[in-house]
Amino acid sequence: MKSKLLLVGVLLVMLLVACQPAPTPAPAEPAKPAEPAAPTEPPAPAPTEPPAPTEPPAPAEPAKPELVTLRFGNMPYLDYGPWIVAEKMGYLEEQGIKLETTMFEVEQPLIEAMLGGSIDAAAGADSPFIMLAPQSKDKLLMVSVHSLFTGYSIMGRPDQVKTYDQFIAEGKTPEEALAEAAKQLKGKTIILPGGASFYPVLDTALGYAGLTKDDLKIVDMDPVEGAAAFLQGTGDFYSDGLPQRFRLEQEGMVNVLTGVQMGGGAMDTAGLYVTKELYEKQPEVVYGLLKAWYKAVDHVKQKPDEAIPMMIDWINEMSGAGMTVDDGKRFLTDLVLFPTYDEVGEWFFTEGSPYYWPERLSFVKAYNEASGTDYSGVDLDAMIPAATVYPKVKP
Questions:
Q1: Which ranges constitute the DSSP H helices of the chain?
Q2: pLDDT band at 22 (very low <50, low <70, confident <90, very high)
Q3: Of the candidates 261, 155, 262, 161, the residue with the CA atom closest to the CA atom of residue 207
Q4: Are residues 70 and 99 in contact, defined by beta-carbon separation less than 8 angstroms?
Q5: Which of these, 36, 72, 220, 334, has the minimum number of CB atoms within 10 Å of its CB?
């Protein structure tokens, strides 16, 4: 009973306590306003290194200009060998030129090809160009004279002829030896390539003996075929330039008379032929050809052991001559002469030189006129502006 009364009392107390209002909390003190922040210095910029200098970009390689392709005529003789050196050494490419070469045996068909429009420029001798000037006036030019050839000869069989040297050994004077050697042509047959370069050689020889072309028979054959025919017994004499002359010497044939012994018309200068159209429209291409030529000549002079084999290999490939490098070196001593650019000025354009061009031109013109060539209306000085072109082509 007591425990029940006690439980009721506890519950009443708990009820009274729960009904009392909750105590009110004391009001909070108002917050003090924040102290203004002290002004701060702006941060110092971080030190920076100056930018490293940059290399300017390397200039782009200039695009190589497209090469000008020229249709070029050449002949397989040593006096035209520097053209192959100019090609192989890259001197033509330096001038922006590429050659598309056609080979000829002699100048006349070459000149005809130029007149027909299939060749733009060509290597060739002065005699045929001057002889054919009436046909090519207003169309072709010879813009340089830059080499000298004295390697022509008139050859015979050793058991049938006597040579100039043999007459000299017998005590004859040079004039007498020339006359006696040339007299042997009378009534005989000579194989002669059909090019204008070769007739002056024969006429020079005949002149020493008081003969003319009517005093012998002339068989016109290409050099290679003619040399083969002569070795097989055709004809009594043979005349040509170095490749076939060398071939016949190897077979035991002898030089009755040589260009060095005869002089006069038995030597040629050579140069560059171009169409008038090419020269008028692209003179820089023509100048470039000649600059490449003179660089090639310098290479032949400075490095003969490199340059001469190039020429000999080319000649043998084109003509079957069988020349050696030693033969080439011998011929280049006194039979085929390549003056440098400066020497060309001294040899051909300096009055008093034995090779002075105006005198050479007058000689060849007079020779052709005596043979019936009519130069009416032909201005040879205009057709051969070599002296005018020369100052513009120094390599």
A1: 2-19, 82-88, 91-94, 107-115, 126-131, 133-136, 164-169, 174-183, 199-208, 223-231, 242-250, 259-262, 276-281, 283-302, 304-319, 325-334, 341-348, 357-370, 380-383, 386-389
A2: very low
A3: 262
A4: yes
A5: 36
Q: Would you call 20 exposed, middle or buried from its count of C-beta atoms within 10 A (0-12, 13-18, 19+)?
A: exposed
Residue 272 φ/ψ region, left for φ over 0, alpha for ψ in the -120 to 50 degree band, beta for the rest: beta
3 state SS of 261: helix
- Return the half-sphere exposure (C-beta side, CA atoms, 13 A cut-off) of residue 185: 32
Give CA–CA dist 295/288, Å, rounded: 11
For the stretch 121-175, pLDDT in tens is 999 999 999 999 999 999 999 999 999 988 889 999 999 999 999 999 999 999 9
Closest by CA to 266, choosing from 348, 221, 206, is 206
Q: pLDDT by residue (tens digit) across 287-316?
A: 999 999 999 999 999 999 999 999 999 999
Q: How would DSSP label each residue in 293-306? A: HHHHHHHHHH-HHH
- Phi, psi of 217, rounded to the nearest 5 degrees: -100, 135
C-alpha Rg value of the chain to the nearest Å: 47
Task: Give me 322's structure tokens.
Answer: 């069988």
CA distance 174 to 165: 9
Bridge partners (DSSP) of residue 336 are: 149
Tell me how many degrees the CA angle 352-386-395 measures, rounded to the nearest 5.
100
User: Which amino acid type is present at position 15?
Assistant: L
Q: Which residue has the tokens 């108002």?
A: 30
Do residues 91 and 107 touch, judged by C-beta distance below 8 A?
no
Count of C-beta atoms within a 10 Å radius of residue 104:
20
DSSP assignments along 91-111, one per residue: HHHHTTEEEEEEE-SSHHHHH
Determine the Cα–Cα distance for residues 17 and 84; give it in Å rounded to an integer: 131
